[in-house]
Amino acid sequence: MYDVAIVGAGIAGSYIARTLARYELKIVLIDGESDVGNQISMANSAIVHAGFDAPSYKLKGKFNAPGCIMYGKVCEDLDVPFKRTGSLVVAHTEEEMMKIHELYQNGLRNGVPDMRILFEDEVHEMEPNLAPDICGALYAGDAGIVSPFELVAKVAENAVDNGVELRLDTLVEDIENNDGSFTLKTNKGNIEAKVVVNAAGVYADDVYEMVGEHYFEILPRKGNYFIFDKECGDLVNNVIFPCPTKNGKGILVAPTVHGNLLIGPDASPTWKGDISTTQDKLDWIKENAHKNVPSVESCYRKIIRNYAGTRNTPVKTEWTTTDGDFIIEESPVKNFVNFAGYESPGLTSIPAAGLYVVDEIILPILEREGVEVKPNENFNPKNRKHVYFNELTEEEKRELIKENPKYGRVICRCETITEGEILDTIHRSAGATTVKGVKKRCRAGMGRCQGGFCSPRVTEILSRELDIPMDQVYYDKKGPAFILTGKTKDVPEQGE
């Protein structure tokens, strides 16, 4: 019997697990995917928002700014690439400048530090490539950029290192309410838990309806993105937002923490699991990015990938009044906690929201049920450092290769990722088991050729290190997405 079972190993579920690991509890983190952070947390804008958007009376407004402030320490402890670039919400008209002033006042209410309103000359001095008709902007210096897939992997790793059990490829098919505890029925057997935390992303409403009556709905929305080659990475220095509308924050133009350029996303209703891209939406993104940064057009030949991700927007129904806000609560079903509708600024808010749900909701439930909650004296918030070979000095590279020759074998030419780095990602406690898992953790396959050169080498390494046949190495999840089906011909051994 587990004290807490967490359904969903995205950023929300993984961070809640890590936060709970501060205590001597029996915790299991469950996900139906082959890796952590494989859905919403995998494909998003990678922006750490300053916190001036959401109204202060919403949970989004409550947790965004504190979460942003906490990010520096979190990423330092977890060894995750993070940079405070600052952000600009730009205005083209006097009417939009009025909205800029509203955002500024809302940011003050939310406790956002380092904000100021810039006028035309200041904006263009800060960002020379902005459209000439931009007449002002809201600057927020605390905003930043992060690698979301590396973040989730490192959060999950730290949770496991501190005693959390991680079960992947484990799909929750039904939940039995035992009046004080739960039996989670999965494709890999039953799991008993005193408390269940529902952090299942776009499937959170489906998971809740396994134990309770329908009272909230998740509307999946899809957003398309472009990633540009690093040659375009210095087009802007800050995250550039248009003036927001009732439909959202709009098309952003932003550097990435690894030196690329990103534009997107749009937002359109879709079905759960849909991450297909469409030409009309991609064209619309280009058109709108061009309005704020016209010179982005010169970079279109440097696009190396487009992709789409989903968001789990909670919608108001006759059963609930979520009004598009996070749903963080002990649900009407006793001992069942919903952490749902967790869309933007969810990635930013998680350090603060995760602490809240643990300290104010989950621990009181456990204490109410007679569970003795004691601090985990051995909890270590820090991860073992990952070696980023390409960031070392020439002398450091020579010393490392002398110590471990596998760091001298470059597997991914575009990103200069070595075999030593790939081995490190595989053999960590929440390590990679697929080609995509390696790609997410150390960027092998993230460069110009998008894995065209290195994927066969990565497949070989996974096969060897996991001791499985090469035709059982998958790009992503298990199933039809195989890479190899068998040999084209049998080659006789030498001497036969």
Main β-sheet, in a few words?
8 strands, mixed
Extract low-pLDDT stretches.
Answer: none
CATH superfamily of the largest domain: FAD/NAD(P)-binding domain
The class by helix and strand makeup works out as alpha+beta
Strand count: 22
Whole-number total of structural domains: 3
Helix content: 25-40%
Oligomer: single chain
Give the CATH topology of the largest domain: FAD/NAD(P)-binding domain
Describe the structure.
The protein is of the alpha+beta class. It is 30% helix and 22% strand. The chain contains 12 helices and 22 strands. The chain has helices at residues 11-20, 59-78, 94-109, 120-126, 148-161, 204-208, 279-292, 346-368, 394-403, 419-426, 435-442, 455-466, and strands at residues 2-7, 27-30, 47-48, 82-83, 87-91, 115-119, 136-140, 144-146, 165-167, 172-177, 182-186, 189-198, 217-228, 239-241, 252-255, 261-264, 268-269, 303-315, 327-330, 336-340, 410-412, 417-418. Strands 1, 2, 9, 10, 11, 12, 19 and 20 form an 8-stranded mixed sheet that branches. Strands 13, 15, 16, 17 and 18 form a 5-stranded antiparallel sheet that branches. Strands 6-7-5-14 form a 4-stranded mixed sheet. A hairpin with a 4-residue loop joins strand 10 and strand 11 (182-186). Helix 1 crosses helix 8 and helix 2 crosses helix 8. The radius of gyration is 23 Å and the shape is globular. The mean pLDDT is 94.
Characterize this entry briefly:
By secondary structure, the protein is of the alpha+beta class. The chain is 30% helix and 22% strand.
